[in-house]
TrEMBL record:
Gene (UniProt): RCE1
Subcellular location: Endoplasmic reticulum membrane
EC number: 3.4.26.1
Entry GO terms, CC: endoplasmic reticulum membrane
Full protein name: CAAX prenyl protease 2
């Protein structure tokens, strides 16, 4: 999921019929133009993020440490400047969030501990089958595994590994900042929270198509296989993006989506085919089914907004005379 390395959607007014839209009341563009400004801003952010990866000319592959270090620099600059796009959007639309920009983007202390722990726990439950598969294939026992995980040398080695830093730290942080924390506040007043959850990941999924360029450039596979892989990657990154957008709205925090993103980057896409051929196939498949079942059962309770305090995006829509009970309560 690391980018470093509808017609069916109805545009909803930001106001109820009996109340004048806040943006109109302020003499700003109407809801239609507001939506175009929002979509264009999100598209600009996505293009800037991906474009920053290619400002450096190099004949080296994307996993080379020198390439990763250069991309760290450019993508961190773009990500640091991305809140300015939200500020510009606020000035152009006249929408006043009623809270600070950082709070709107998920940087707040209220409810931060459950926001960090519960979404990650929920995601680990979903990956129960793959986690069981990983433990069965690992030659070391639980005690030895914990020693390795807790050893300072292991962490020191990870922190000097450019690919680990990219996949577990930089990519999750910058992608969630740009594609969730910045885009959702701009899309939600335009189309509502529900459609925004499914629209925002489209920018995220399309942003990963840049991998096609590098795969074609280095002839890593046949053209057909490359495009098939890109279509598959777009599908699961879009689904994952919808999930983290849901977490961002329901918790009002950025930390949960970042930690879940890092965990999913570590786990990768579940190796279902390998599980079907595993010697311990039956318990593994039971673990897969149990994980998905528990995830669906606990999705609403573990993301209950009451656990995380007031939700900035819900407050934003309430100020505009709109509310979405399904996601905000």
């Amino acid at each position: 999921m690391a980018a470093l390395g509808g017609d069916g959607l109805r545009l909803l007014s930001v106001s109820r019929p009996e109340r004048q839209p806040e943006s109109t009341a302020l003499g700003s563009p109407g809801p239609g133009l507001c939506c175009w400004v929002s979509v264009f801003s999100c598209l600009s952010l996505a293009c800037s993020y991906v474009g920053s990866l290619y400002v450096w000319k190099s004949e080296l592959p994307r996993d080379h440490p020198a390439v990763i270090k250069r991309r760290f620099t450019s993508v961190l600059v773009v990500s640091s400047l991305s809140p300015l796009c939200v500020l510009l959007w606020r000035e152009l639309t006249g929408i006043q969030p009623g809270t600070s920009l950082l709070t709107l983007m998920g940087f707040r202390l209220e409810g931060i501990f459950p926001a960090a722990l519960l979404p990650l726990l929920l995601t680990m439950i979903l990956f129960l089958g793959p986690l069981m598969q990983l433990s069965l294939d690992c030659p070391c026992d639980l005690a030895d595994g914990l020693k390795v995980v807790l050893a300072p040398r292991s962490w020191a080695r990870c922190l000097t590994d450019m690919r680990w830093l990219r996949n577990q730290v930089i990519a999750p942080l910058t992608e969630e900042l740009v594609f969730r924390a910045c885009m959702l506040p701009m899309l939600a007043p335009c189309m509502g929270l529900g459609p925004a959850v499914f629209t925002c990941p489209l920018f995220f999924g399309v942003a990963h198509f840049h991998h096609i360029i590098e795969q074609l450039r280095f002839r890593q596979s046949s053209v057909g296989s490359i495009f098939l892989s890109a279509a598959f990657q777009f599908s699961y990154t879009a689904v994952f993006g919808a999930y983290t957008a849901f977490l961002f709205i329901r918790t009002g925090h950025l930390i949960g989506p970042v930690l879940c993103h890092s965990f999913c980057n570590y786990m990768g896409f579940p190796a279902v085919c390998a599980a079907l051929e595993h010697p311990q196939r039956r318990p593994l498949l039971a673990g897969y089914a149990l994980g998905v079942g528990l995830f669906l059962l606990l999705l609403q309770p573990l993301t209950n907004p009451k656990l995380y305090g007031s939700l900035p995006l819900c407050v934003l829509l309430e100020r505009a005379g709109d509310s979405e009970a399904l996601l905000c309560s």
